[in-house]
Amino acid sequence: MSPPISPRWTRPVSGRWCCPFEGEPVCARFDNVRPATPWRGRPWQGPPRDAWTSSIDEAGFTEGVTKIRRTIAAGGVYQVNLTRRLSAPLPSGWSIAALGAALANGNPAPFSAVVQLPEQGVHVASASPELFLGRRGDMVWSSPIKGTAASADGFLAKDAAENVMIVDLVRNDLGRVCLTGSVETPALLGVEQHPGLFHLVSTVRGRLRPDAGWAELVAATFPPGSVTGAPKLAAVEVIRSLEPVPRGVYCGAVGWVDADRAEGELNVAIRTFWAAEGSLHLGTGGGITWDSDPAGEWAETELKAANLLAVVSGGPARTGRGAGPAS
After folding, report:
1. What mean pLDDT value characterizes the chain?
2. Is residue 3, in this structure, part of any structural domain at all?
């Protein structure tokens, strides 16, 4: 898998970063950056609720879960993040800024972002609850989310196992660029409430080596372990074999970097909408382990998309229509 930072970059670019799951990043400086709200333009009016289709239907998704469990049983992986893409035609007069404002009001998130670069084809509105990388000087940290439930007491043993596996992966990733002995886990399996659901969240941090900067940090840790699985490279190969459409910016990273001050925050681009080729897209998925129940994993993808679709399209939060790849 190609790293998001090309080796030919000798100095990271300060500004807003939009890094797709695979492929080259887009980095831009803006003269003005403003909050998503208040929005004084035309209010967002999304596609009808029944216009959304899924790149993988329920039968296909549960079959994918079963295949991953077989791979785990054979010793190929420990965990794989399986996702699907929801798509609907873009409404007339659409604006990604209006969508970002709707999300800010209806699905507030700590690492939300709106990026619009028409000439580069970037139209992204992210309501991400997850921090991929934070940096202040030589201190760096990541807060992976694994484990989702409809209530604070609804987590299963599988949720905790998912989280601990990814914490171990993130520790190893950061250990590649941090001072020996500096990587630690100050928070493990914390419960966070977000719109419509609860998550288990941990934090891993360390101190960067003097010879490591943004380029080395991102190259060592991207793509985020919480949206790949473990071991990372083997999990990515399973993802490629099971997911019929590319993830795009979904499961990549969006955020800001100040290379001069050695500061920044990049989210994990989940709960993220993007516009491309006449369609609006949203990804949803989850970590699959040996203890995963196929029907339960499908239900988790529905839960994660439910509030977002209610905000963007209104109506019942069901995402199971459509059997083929999204257009």
Report:
1. 91
2. no
DSSP per-residue letters across 276-290: ETTEEEEEEEEEE-T
Burial level of 260, CB count in 10 A (0-12/13-18/19+)? exposed
For 19, 123, 216, 263, the CA distances from 113, given in Å and listed in that order, are 13, 11, 24, 17
Q: Residue 35: its pLDDT value, please?
A: 81
pTM: 0.91
Strands 131-136 and 263-267, sheet pairing? antiparallel
327 inside domain: no
pLDDT digits (tens, 9 = 90+) for 203-231: 999 999 999 999 999 999 999 999 999 99
Domain count, the chain: 1
Q: What's the pLDDT at 13? A: 66
Contact of 77 with 229, CB cutoff 8 Å: yes
User: From CA 195, how far away is CA 146, in angstroms rounded?
Assistant: 16
CB 239 within 8 A of CB 80: yes
C-alpha 25/C-alpha 224 separation (Å) is 15
Q: Is residue 318 part of a domain?
A: no
Q: How many CA atoms lie within 13 A of 237 on its CB side?
A: 7
Residue 37 inside a domain? The answer is: no
Taking alpha carbons only, the member of 256, 272, 242 closest to residue 103 is: 272
Written as six digits, the tokens of 6 are: 């090309």
Q: pLDDT value at position 5?
A: 38
What distances in angstroms separate CA 309 from CA 71, 192, 317, one per listed residue?
A: 32, 21, 6
Distance set, CA 123 to CA 107, 248, 253, 272 (Å):
18, 12, 14, 11
> CA 152 to CA 273: how far, in whole Å?
26
Residue 238 sits in a domain whose CATH number is 3.60.120.10
Residues noted as catalytic: 130, 146
Domain that holds residue 214: 49-312
